[in-house]
Structure formats: C-alpha cells, structure tokens
Amino acid sequence: MSSKKPPRPKPEKKRTSDAPKGARGSRTRLWAVAIVLLLALLGGAVFFGTYGRGALPGSGDLRAVQLAGDEHDLEKLQSAGIVPDSALFRLWARVTGVKAKAGPHWLPGNLPPAELAARLERRGQKQRVTFPEGWNRFEMGKRLETLGVCTKADFLAATADKALLGELRIEGESAEGYLFPATYELSADAEPAEVVRRLKSEFDKRLSAVEMQTGSGRLDLIHSLSWGTKEIVTLASMIEKEAAVDEDRPLIASVFLNRLRDPAFTKKILQCDPTAGYGCSLALETHGTVPAGCARFTGKITHEVNVDPTNLYSTYTHEGLPPGPIANPGVKSLTAVLAPANTRFLYFVAKGGGRHAFSETYEAHHAAVKGQVPAP
C-alpha cells in the first residue's frame, strides 16, 4: 500500500464580474438618480394633493366671472379675487391640467383648489334646491344665486334665451310656467341653461303623467277653446296663485273656464288679481316699460294695478288669458285645468281661512262679497 497522501484540491478562484468597474458605478448612480426622482415625484404628489385640499386665501363671498375656456381664464379668476395671484397656484393649475368650461361662473373666493377645479369643469358638489309651487322665475333665480348654483341674472337670461326656448319647445317670451316646482340636486356653479333644461324636463314628465290621469281633459280644451300647452300652463299658473286649499283648485278652474265658454258671459274678463301683479313685477324685474298703475307697486295688488289698461297682464282690462304664465304651477293646479269641477259658477271671492265662496250669478256673488252667503 502506498504511503503517499492524495493531493489537496486547489481552492477555486473568486469570480469577478465581467463588467468594468466604471460601468458598475454608472449603474449605481442611475439607480440613485431614479430613487431620488421617484421620491421627488411622490413628495410632489403628496404636496400638490395637500395643496389641492386646502382652502385658498380669500373671502367666501360669491363672485360672478365670465370665462372663455382659454389661457386667459386664470387672469380673469385672479382679477375677480377667486384665485390668488401666486406662482404656486399657477404651477398647481398647470400640473393638474384644469380646464374651465366656457360660460358664466358663480364662485366663492376661498374654495380648495381641487373643488374649484371641479366647479370650473362643471362637476362640482351637489346643492339641494327646493322651489315651492307658485314661485315665478325671478324668485327661483334669487334662490339659485343664494345657494351658489348660478346668478339670478344668468338664470333669467337662460329662461329668456330664444335658442334654448326653441330647443325646449316653449312657446312664449320665457320659460315661466315650465320650470317645475320641486326639490332638485343641482351642481354648485352649474351652467344656467342646464338648470333650465333640468326643470323643463321635470315639467314634461309631470304634465305627461297628469294628462294620462285626466283622460280626455286636453282634448276637451282643444275642441272647446283651441288650447295648447301654453294656455293650459297659463291657466294653471293663475289657479296656483289664487288657490290656498286644494279643494278649491278645480272649482276656481271651472269659474275661469265657464267664463270663457259661456256665450252669455259676453265680456270674457277673468278678473284674476295676480295676473296684473305679475305684469308689474315683470316690468320692474326686466327693466321694461312700467305700466302707469305699477308706479307705486311694492308687491301688494291694488285697484289701481288691476284697472290699468297699459298693463297687458291685467285680466280686468283685457279679455281672455294673460300673455303667458304668471308663475310655475304644481301638479294639482295642472290637474285642475285638465279635470275642472263640473259647475255653473261664474264668480268667486275669498271668504277667509284660505277658502272661497263660489256663485252662479252676479247677485249671489255680490251677497257673498258682503259675507252674506257661505261657500257651498
């Protein structure tokens, strides 16, 4: 047996990278730069996100501004005091890509930038708005302005826009009567025309439902008086302003319709006080020619207001319906026109407690005026 020891295995040589030392250093530096950039981006995102949620300096007063949807909008917002004249906000707006919708805007000056951007793009938070039955468009406009939806002036302009009225198939000088009174969820800083479209869409839906429920009501009015939607809405608006209790609505409708249909009632005057009052309000609100009888008008309808022949809405001096609706009626008043009570009444007078006394003859009406005859 040999006494020689087996040879020891040679230690393996340590492997080294084939890449040169300079390349390895460049790769390390690239990773370091990438990490720094990533951290910078994350930090910027956090900063801009925080900035976007914080309120801008300024008062909460609402301001009107007309924007064109172009590069000059930022200057207009600054001039209006809605956004600060700061490099930081300009950078935020540029980075986030805010693009305002052209048109009128109604904005407070202390919104967080993110909410401001949403409103400028017409996707802002919703505002709950309730319109009572019988309000006219001027009252509606005031509420919209107060709640930050749009200015009263811009809303009124939209309600009288000829192109929009044609689109919505509204006959007349304005959308008065077709702005259905209900509760809506409307966007803060909404486009006024969109608000009008929303209210008219609700009107169409409600009137269609009423027509289905009242059967031949519309056909009866077409055959007897050649009426269309405008006349139906106009009479419904008058009933809305006259009636205080629901039970009286179809009775009041019957009085007005009997006067128009009865051949013996030769002078077709409807003698509805609220129509003349609306004529005064319309002239004053739109800065039109004020009828002489409205010179001292402060909201109360007087004899002077009613008998003024220069007031085209006076149903004391002009026969038939007024030129258009005087308010925005609800379902019950629309229903009263299409399904009036079957009576021979030609007169009615308020008797207190929100109720009216109804009469077939002038003699009975005169007694009711004196409080001698109770309502049936």
Shape: elongated
The percent range for helix content is 40-55%
Tally the helices. Answer: 15
Quickly count the domains. 3
Q: What do the pLDDT scores average to?
A: 88
Distance between the termini: 143 Å
Approximate strand percentage: 5-15%
If strands are numbered along the chain, what order do they take across the biggest sheet?
Answer: 1-2
Number of strands: 6
| Secondary-structure content class | mainly alpha
What radius of gyration results from the CA coordinates? 35 Å
Stretches with pLDDT under 50, minimum 5 residues: none
Q: Tell me about the largest β-sheet.
A: 2 strands, antiparallel
H/E topology pattern? HEHHEHEHHHEHHHHHHHEEH
What characteristics describe this protein?
376 residues, two-stranded antiparallel sheet, 3 domains, 9% strand, mainly alpha, two-stranded antiparallel ribbon, 46% helix, Dna Ligase, domain 1
Outline the structure in words.
The chain has 376 residues and is mostly helical. The chain folds into three domains: 62-120, Dna Ligase, domain 1 (2-Layer Sandwich); 126-208, no CATH class; 215-369, no CATH class. 46% of the residues lie in helices and 9% in strands. A two-stranded antiparallel ribbon has the order 1-2. Strands 3-4 form a two-stranded antiparallel sheet. A two-stranded antiparallel sheet has the order 5-6.
